[in-house]
Write a structure and sequence with these properties.
The protein is an all-alpha fold and about 350 residues long. The protein has one domain: Glycosyltransferase, CATH 1.50.10.20. About 55% of the residues lie in helices and about 0% in strands.
Length: about 350
């Protein structure tokens, strides 16, 4: 461990164990729960190289500098986007900081306040006027951030906002079992669906009620989206497999409580064809950070040689991609790419409840 790593999160001595207990409150059934204890700090020491540790610190500092006075993130047309603000909050949480505690505790608190202030009476989290790829993307990532923070806080206002956000997700699930761009029960796609099911999983871990029926319908929908090659189509109506959506499909199953079975084995094997450093990995294109955000989670939960091969490959690739100011670049915004990259690099820390094994 570097001295920076020693500093990050050490004040959380008792919290990691507490989060492990919280994360163990999972939906049962649907393939059973893999009996694997959370990793200790030694895992992060083995996996996070000194170069990656430096990249993480530089990335987090960049995000802290880029945060706006109102607590939001992102620049250009995406300024104030609730998804990016939620992802930035998650990046700080992944370092060991929590609201008002730790090196980036104030940044986390400001991001959470911003998200709470954009939570409507209906529970819909949105920032009108800010560009997005679909309002429910923003809602899902923002709700996930609230849920992860609520697992570390008993604040009543936070619980109320989170419960409203969860109810909106439950009430907008369509008949297929998924979700789409708008908070309406119309069509569905795998990409928006994964955002919602991760938020539901994190909320459930934090003690918010989530109907079992909602999760069962989601599992059925995700399974229908899988192609024979192990990858996932964008919508259940048909289509080709692709890296990003397939990583999302695998994590959707994990988040819904499916930990074993042929669909996961086939999905992981499909993803291994996109191992960072291989030419085929370039097909992630403009969805590079999105794809790897989910792919690293898929491999983390799968564990074993899959994780041991995947993480060092994406770790080294991200270190090479980082710019001198600590950011990563994306057509959406550097804050988005930087938050995603910092989350990916910090997975071995095992601090985010949603990622605890």
């Amino acid at each position: 461990m570097t001295s920076q790593t020693g500093r990050r999160g050490r004040w959380l001595t008792g919290l990691v164990s507490a989060l492990a207990v919280t994360a163990a409150t999972l939906w049962q059934g649907a393939g059973g729960l893999a009996a694997e204890a959370p990793l200790v700090e030694a895992e992060a020491g083995r996996m996070i190289s000194p170069a990656a540790e430096k990249a993480i610190e530089n990335g987090l500092r960049y995000l802290a500098r880029a945060q706006h006075e109102d607590g939001s993130f992102a620049s250009g047309g995406y300024r104030g986007n609730v998804a990016i603000s939620g992802l930035a909050g998650l990046a700080f949480l992944a370092s060991g900081s929590t609201p008002n505690r730790g090196p980036y505790g104030e940044n986390v608190d400001r991001a959470v306040r911003y998200i709470m202030d954009r939570t409507q009476e209906s529970g819909f989290i949105t920032a009108p006027g800010s560009a997005s790829h679909g309002p429910m993307y923003g809602h899902g990532f923002a709700a996930l951030c609230l849920a992860e923070c609520y697992g570390m806080s008993a604040e009543e206002e936070l619980r109320d906002k989170l419960a409203r956000a969860v109810n909106l997700i439950v009430n907008t699930q369509n008949d297929e079992g998924g979700w789409r761009y708008q908070p309406r029960r119309l069509d569905a796609d795998i990409s928006v669906t994964i955002c919602q099911v991760m938020a539901l999983r994190a909320a459930r871990n934090a003690g918010i009620e989530v109907p079992r029926e909602t999760i069962d319908k989601c599992i059925a929908y995700v399974r229908r989206c899988q192609n024979p090659d192990g990858g996932f189509m964008y919508m259940a109506s048909g289509g080709e497999s692709a890296f990003g959506r397939s990583a999302a499909g695998v994590v959707a199953l994990h988040s819904a409580g499916v930990y074993e079975g042929p669909e996961l084995a086939k999905g992981i094997q499909y993803l291994m064809g996109f191992l960072p450093g291989q030419s085929s990995a370039a097909s992630a294109g403009s969805y590079y950070y999105y794809a790897h955000y989910y792919a690293v989670q898929a491999m983390w939960r799968q564990g074993g040689t899959f994780w041991q091969r995947w993480y060092p490959a994406i770790r080294d690739e991200l270190v090479e991609r980082q710019r001198s100011d600590g950011s990563w670049v994306s057509p959406i915004s550097p804050e988005y790419a930087t938050a995603m990259s910092c989350i990916v690099l910090q997975v071995p820390n095992n601090y985010l409840p949603i990622l605890q094994r």
